[in-house]
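Query structure, 377 C-alpha cells:
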C-alpha cells in the first residue's frame, strides 16, 4: 500500500539521520522527568487515591463535560484552583497541550494579534495554527522587541486585541520570562498576557502558585497538573468570561472526553497540601540551589543556572546523544535534546532537578558530567 510505503520511507530517512524516536523504559536516577516535587509516586498521592476510592469517586468520566462527563470533583477542583491561583475561574482539561490548543484557537479573534515569544511551546503553535488571529514572534525574553512588534503591527493598521504569549519557565532553556516588564507592556496596550506556568507550578511563587501570581494586568494562566503537581491534566485560570467562552467555543474542550474525576480528586489533594504546607516547595528550591552550586563548581555557565531545568549545551548532535547514552549507562537518566526540538547547533543535555534525587545524587552527576566534558573536549 502506498501510504504504508510512504510512512516506512519517512521512518527510514529518520533512521539514516539518527533521529528516529523510540520509547524506552524508566531506568536510573531521575534527572529527566518533570516530577519536580517528587509527587507522582508519593505517599501523599497514595493516601489521596485511597480516600477518593473510599468516597466513590469514579475512575473514568465516560463522556465529554457537556454530556454526562461532568462530575462534582471537576467543579470542586475548578473552584479551589481558581482560589489557589488567584483567578475568577478555572477550567480543568485533559492536559496542557490540549489546553493551549483551546486557548489560542478560541479566545483570540480574527483581526487580533497573538504576539509570542519565539520559544513558546509547540502546543501554543498548534493552537495559533488552528485560530484566526494574526501571529508574530519576538526575540526570546526581549520585552523591548515585543513592544516594537506591537508598534509595527499597529502602524500597519492592526487594531484588534493584543494577546502576549509566553512561558514563565522555558522547558528547554530553563530561564525565566521577564514577567514584570511584560505585564507593564500588557497594561500599556490593554493586552492579555497569557502565561504558560507548566514548569513553574509547584516550584515558584508563594506555595507554588507560579511566577505570574499577583501580576497587575489581565492575565490568563495555564497550570499543568502532570509536572510539579504529579498527576495529569491542565488548569486554565483567568476571567470568568474567558472560561465561559472556552466552555462554549473551544473544540478541544467540547469534543474531548472529560478528564477522569479521580484525577481531579488527586489534583485537589495536592493543591490542599501546597496551600497548608510549604515543605515540598521549599525542598525543591533547596535542591535547585544545591544543583546550581554544584553545576557552577563543575564549569556549567552561569547563564544556564536559572531554575530546576539546567541545559548543558554541547552543540553537536552526535556528541550530545553519545554523552547522554554514557550517563544513562552509569545510572543517570538524562536525555539528549536535539533539533527540531531545539535550534540547530544547540543540542544539549537537559538536566532536570526532580524530587526523586538527593543532594548527593546531584553532586555525583555534575562531577561525572564534568569529567566526561573534559574527556570529550
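Result returned for the query:
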Amino acid at each position: 500500500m502506498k501510504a504504508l510505503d510512504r510512512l516506512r520511507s519517512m521512518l527510514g530517512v529518520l533512521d539514516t539521520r539518527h533521529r528516529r524516536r523510540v520509547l524506552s523504559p524508566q531506568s536510573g536516577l531521575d534527572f529527566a522527568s518533570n516530577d519536580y516535587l517528587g509527587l507522582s509516586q508519593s505517599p501523599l498521592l497514595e493516601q489521596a487515591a485511597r480516600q477518593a476510592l473510599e468516597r466513590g469517586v469514579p475512575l473514568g468520566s465516560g463522556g465529554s463535560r457537556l454530556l454526562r462527563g461532568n462530575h462534582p470533583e471537576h467543579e470542586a477542583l475548578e473552584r479551589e484552583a481558581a482560589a489557589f491561583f488567584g483567578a475568577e475561574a478555572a477550567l480543568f482539561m485533559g492536559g496542557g497541550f490540549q489546553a493551549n490548543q483551546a486557548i489560542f484557537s478560541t479566545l483570540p479573534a480574527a483581526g487580533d494579534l497573538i504576539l509570542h515569544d519565539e520559544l513558546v511551546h509547540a502546543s501554543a503553535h498548534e493552537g495559533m495554527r488552528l485560530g484566526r488571529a494574526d501571529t508574530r514572534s519576538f526575540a526570546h525574553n526581549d520585552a523591548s522587541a515585543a513592544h516594537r512588534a506591537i508598534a509595527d503591527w499597529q502602524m500597519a493598521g492592526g487594531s484588534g486585541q493584543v494577546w502576549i504569549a509566553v512561558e514563565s519557565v522555558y522547558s528547554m532553556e530553563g530561564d525565566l520570562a521577564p514577567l514584570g516588564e511584560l505585564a507593564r507592556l500588557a497594561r500599556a496596550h490593554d493586552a492579555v498576557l497569557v502565561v504558560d506556568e507548566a514548569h513553574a507550578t509547584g516550584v515558584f511563587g508563594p506555595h507554588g502558585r507560579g511566577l505570574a501570581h499577583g501580576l497587575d494586568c489581565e492575565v490568563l494562566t495555564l497550570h499543568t497538573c502532570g509536572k510539579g503537581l504529579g498527576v495529569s491534566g491542565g488548569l486554565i485560570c483567568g476571567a470568568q468570561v474567558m472560561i465561559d467562552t472556552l466552555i462554549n467555543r473551544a473544540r478541544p474542550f467540547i469534543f474531548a472526553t472529560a478528564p477522569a474525576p479521580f484525577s481531579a480528586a488527586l489534583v485537589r489533594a495536592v493543591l490542599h497540601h501546597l496551600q497548608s504546607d510549604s515543605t515540598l516547595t521549599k525542598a525543591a528550591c533547596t535542591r535547585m540551589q544545591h544543583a546550581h552550586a554544584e553545576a557552577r563548581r563543575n564549569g556549567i555557565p552561569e547563564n544556564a543556572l536559572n531554575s530546576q531545568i539546567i541545559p548543558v549545551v554541547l552543540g553537536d548532535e552526535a556528541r550530545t546523544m553519545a554523552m547522554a547514552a554514557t550517563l544513562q549507562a552509569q545510572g543517570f537518566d538524562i536525555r539528549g535534546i536535539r533539533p527540531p526540538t531545539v535550534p540547530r547547533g544547540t543540542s544539549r543535555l537537559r538536566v532536570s532537578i526532580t524530587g526523586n534525587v538527593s543532594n548527593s545524587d546531584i553532586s555525583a552527576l555534575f562531577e561525572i558530567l564534568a569529567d566526561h566534558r573534559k574527556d570529550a573536549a
